[in-house]
Amino acid sequence: MSRNIRRLLFLAALLLAPAVSAQQSAAPTEPRNGRIYLDVVVTQKSGPPVSDLQQQDFTILDNKVPQTITSFQAVDGRQAPIEVVVVVDAVNADYHTVAYERDQIDKFLRTEGGDLAHSTALAVLTDTGVQTVGDFSKDGNKLSASLDQYTVALRFLRRGAGFYAAAERFQVSLDGLHELVEREASLPGRKIMIWISPGWPLLSGPEVQLDTKEQQQLFADIVDFSTDLLRDRITLYNIDPLGTGEGLDRALYWQSFVNGISKPSQVTAGNLGLQVLATQSGGLVFTASNNITALLQNCLADARAYYKLSFDPPTGERSNEHHHLEIRIAQHGLTARTHEGYYSRPELGWRPVIPTPVDTGSRLAPD
Description:
The protein is α/β, with parallel strands linked by helices. The chain has one domain. The chain has helices spanning 3-25, 95-110, 140-149, 163-184, 212-231, 248-253, 274-280, 292-301; strands at residues 36-43, 58-62, 65-67, 69-76, 82-89, 115-126, 129-139, 190-196, 234-239, 285-286, 305-311, 322-329, 335-337, 341-343. The strands form three sheets. Strands 7-6-5-8-9-10 form a six-stranded mixed beta sheet, with helices on both faces. A four-stranded antiparallel beta sheet has the order 4-11-1-13, with no helix packed on it. A hairpin with a 2-residue loop joins strand 6 and strand 7. Mean pLDDT is 82; it is low at 1-32 and 346-367.
């Protein structure tokens, strides 16, 4: 790793430090117990979610150890309070791609006469942050009109413009995700966040080496994002608007980073990739098609029927200890998706923490 890159990363960490302290000082005051709640979607290999299971059909494994299910609820998504946020990424896609995204989203919003199943909001990520388009609404026609009137007034950060532009897009993207997660934290119920984007730069590769301080900062940010998404019941989805035009190498590169990180020495910036965070939250990643209208419907199919389970996690032996979660279904041929892990806070029992802005890393592998 070059001296200039190290200097850039270290400077970014210094600039972010005051913001981190401010966020941490604003910890929530309401009491919280250590119980973990999971929204679990059960499916066959294809088809809609399965809705007729009972508690005895589920087994929760925490680091491969079965846990006692403390509560169980089969949820009809048509009756549950679910908030949907559709994000247009105008930072990591070019102008023509964003225009195509907007046309496809408009078709989605006007489906079924504009009668949306869930309260939905639109947001656009620009190089100045996240900008909302209207308010939450079930009126797709109203949201579509707001989108038609909205102009993406920004300076597009160019894709493939070298490391420094990639690092900037990485930081802007993660700051935007942090801002949206923070906004969603106050809303009740389950949230589905659908990020339409090729993904931000992963800033990882064989020629990149992070020092101990950089790894520790990135690890802290991984812990915070994982905790916040779980705490706030946010499932993240990613639709790649380029579809098969993305290129197989780049479309699949993120899979190298999807396993949970147990300690700072394992960290690369790729562990904070959009597709990685989506998979770990129990969401889906779509890369094989650019039919965004249909893929948005596929994402929301997860909300038709799901299960809300809880358990009391074992006490961790050390702070930020990673626990891998797995849900096993007794019936053959069924699979379950939910958050794939969490990080313990043994000094307080497991509890949520306030989101932390994410430091930048470096990546020289496929952008």
